Amino acid sequence: MSVRIAPSLLSADFARLADEIAMCEAGGADWIHVDVMDGRFVPNLTFGAKVIETVRRLTDLPLDVHLMVVEPENYFEDFVAAGASGLTIHTEVAPHLLRQLSRIKELGARAGAVINPGTPLSAVQEVAVELDLLLIMSVNPGFGGQQFIPGSVGKIRRARRLLAETGSRALLQVDGGISRETINACWRAGADTFVAGNAIFSAADPEAEIGVLRAQCMESA
Question: Which residues are known to be catalytic?
């Protein structure tokens, strides 16, 4: 199972954005993760289309855009036009999830669904086969640098089973508290794509840390 590491720009130094992205590329990052928060769905406010546009100019890596916003459908066109490679939306604010996923695909982007720690996997059961990506939040979203919720490992395992049972080919991503201490358990549970912010950008050698995280997934399952 191939492993994807997606450094989260939420933890990057924005005064040195070009350098930070170049470091991620040099370290072998697979994707760049961009968190969009509207101050309503989560208690924080972050990046919009202009930042995605800027990041797109700085790298050819896929831009993995996580929409922590209410009414995410209002942003699809602008964000894909700005350079998003994939858009991941929260089931908690997507009552028309299938329609919204279809629209993202129509725009030519990878379509993903996210579930919060308190949201059951049944929220994606009916659309699992349509997903390009399923994101399991292992912290409550809104802020970087939070502690990994241990119960997330069991949820990842159940999510992998759900994807297999429904015939879904979706990537299984985990976001929140991912570090060299937590990534192996998530990988062994069935995750293949990992968002890491604090663990990378706060490391003594951020570039090398990307490889360290990847190596944790190569240990025997």
Answer: 35, 175
CA distance 210 to 26: 10
Please give the structure tokens belonging to residue 219.
Answer: 């240990």
* Predicted confidence (pLDDT) per residue in 103-116, tens digit: 999 999 999 999 99
Please compute the mean of the pLDDT values over residues 182-207 and round it to a whole number. Answer: 96
Contact call for residues 76 and 69 (beta carbons, < 8 A): no
* Whether the Cβ atoms of residue 16 and residue 46 lie closer than 8 Å to each other: no
**Tokens 């996210």, residue located:** 114
- Is the model's pLDDT at 143 over the cut of 80? no
The 8 Å CB, 24+ separation contacts for 215-218 are: 216/180, 216/183, 216/184, 216/187, 217/3, 217/183, 217/184, 217/187, 218/3
Residue 1 has pLDDT above 80, yes or no: no
Higher local confidence (pLDDT), 47 or 8: 8
Per the DSSP assignment, residues forming a β-bridge with 172 are: 134
Scanning the structure block, which residue is given the tokens 């949201």? 119
The tokens of 28 are what?
């072998």
- CB 112 within 8 Å of CB 134: yes
- The helix/strand/coil state of 181 is coil
